[in-house]
Amino acid sequence: MAAQVPTEALKELKVAEANGKGAKPEPAADDDHGDDSDDDAEDNAAATGAAKKKKKRKPKKKKKNPTAQSEPPRVKVSQLFPNGTYPKGEEVEYKDENRYRTTSEEKRHLDNINTDFLTDYREAAEIHRQVRQYAQKVVRPGQTLTEIAETIEDGVRALTGHDGLAEGDAMKAGMGFPCGLSLNHCAAHYTPNAGNKMVLQQEDVMKVDFGVHVNGRIVDSAFTMAFEPKYDNLLQAVKEATNAGIREAGIDARVGEIGGVIQETMESFEVEIDGTTYPVKSIRNLTGHTILPYSIHGTKAVPIVKSNDQTKMEEGDVFAIETFGSTGNGYVRDDMEVSHYAKNTDVQHVDLRLSSAKSLLSVINKNFGTLPFCRRYLDRLGQEKYLLGLNSLVNSGIVEAYPPLCDKKGSYTAQFEHTILIRPTVKEVISRGDDY
Ligand SMILES: [Co+2]
């Protein structure tokens, strides 16, 4: 999920560029019941004495735990990795003055006392990889955005083993934030609301951005799908820019400098679409961000253009490194109907007058806490006619609306994103896969 630079900070950034001053952008195996029903039936037959036939005991068919993922993905990953050891992400050694960390006993100890954190993160990342790779295989033009979102969200929930329907279940594991499916000039935060009939077209460029969480540890990772080769350079620019950002990330790295490297990489590309050549621009008011437990946007931002932000990455930080390239203005605005929301992490108690707002807030507290959700998630919990209450929560500052963010009409935008753990010993690109 993209973090946005507030307009004020962006103005400041321009000033800062002029006078050299820093600008700070805001920022298991539990269905192993052997199949014994037919044995019971035979026992009953024997007990009645009616059957003279010899009791032929079939060898008990023991339903084995699946060892491979199904299609569509429905096997819990905890069943595929029954000893709880999930695949590691890509581990990258620190450089220069932090090189010692790889072999430091002290740093290794810090890693070892954090095993629950690592296990939850690696499980969430494996779920992300399995679900997205299935999506990459089956998502095609002609499908509705609603179908595509459900393909991904049903997959994520099944693989965590939490369908999120019982009160509080979605807080244990499941969607870390709604599945964004933003098309063409829209860069982020679009997902269908109920009744949306939009159909994916052959010429579309779709950003697929979804989160998986296990115990509040959110993996935030995104990719872009296009079905026409004319967009290849746009996608390549953004993929390389994101990888450049990941490469530059590390303990003591300054986020403003990382932004500079990202921008340089991104803007070394151009793309020809239907006879017109466009420079690929970094979208300057979108950023990467830190991730906190149950909170998708922490306090640090990672710009994707050069900036004087001297903020350093530190041991223990979790970052979403995401970059956006555009053939348009390289600047996004709020546009279209809101779908994404999240409770603010720093709300004081507010006395709500509207009873529908009060009851909706209680639903949000129990099922999402501060995790982002969308209108469809309220629908599936059986909530009805909640818009007035929801808007009142937004207006009172308790809930934040995250409207779709779009560049100018007719332009194309792309995104790639990974979550990285700034571990004491190494940097782990937790969501890395064979695909991106
Ligand atoms: Co993000």
Automatic annotation (TrEMBL):
Cofactor binding mode and count: Binds 2 divalent metal cations per subunit. Has a high-affinity and a low affinity metal-binding site. The true nature of the physiological cofactor is under debate. The enzyme is active with cobalt, zinc, manganese or divalent iron ions. Most likely, methionine aminopeptidases function as mononuclear Fe(2+)-metalloproteases under physiological conditions, and the catalytically relevant metal-binding site has been assigned to the histidine-containing high-affinity site.
Annotated GO CC locations: cytoplasm
Sequence ranges of Basic residues compositional bias: 51-65
Ranges of Basic and acidic residues composition bias in the record: 88-103
Cofactor requirements of the protein: Mn(2+); Fe(2+); Co(2+); Zn(2+)
Keywords per UniProt: Aminopeptidase, Cytoplasm, Hydrolase, Metal-binding, Protease
UniProt keyword Metal-binding, yes or no: yes
Residue ranges with Acidic residues bias: 28-43
EC number: 3.4.11.18
Disordered: annotated span: 1-103
Residues that coordinate or bind a divalent metal cation 1: D209, D220, E417
Main location: cytoplasm
Keyword Protease: yes
PROSITE patterns: MAP_2
Binding positions for substrate per the UniProt entry: H189, H297
Highest taxon in the source lineage: Eukaryota
Location of this chain's protein in the cell: Cytoplasm
Domain Peptidase M24: 121-331
InterPro entries (alphabetical): Creatinase/aminopeptidase-like, Met_Aminopeptidase_Type2, Pept_M24, Pept_M24_MAP, Pept_M24A_MAP2, Pept_M24A_MAP2_BS, WH-like_DNA-bd_sf, WH_DNA-bd_sf
Catalysed reactions listed for this entry: Release of N-terminal amino acids, preferentially methionine, from peptides and arylamides
One GO term (biological process): proteolysis
Family: Belongs to the peptidase M24A family. Methionine aminopeptidase eukaryotic type 2 subfamily.
Function: Cotranslationally removes the N-terminal methionine from nascent proteins. The N-terminal methionine is often cleaved when the second residue in the primary sequence is small and uncharged (Met-Ala-, Cys, Gly, Pro, Ser, Thr, or Val).
PANTHER family membership: METHIONINE AMINOPEPTIDASE 2 (PTHR45777)
NCBIfam families: met_pdase_II
Protein name, per record: Methionine aminopeptidase 2
Organism encoding this protein: Purpureocillium takamizusanense
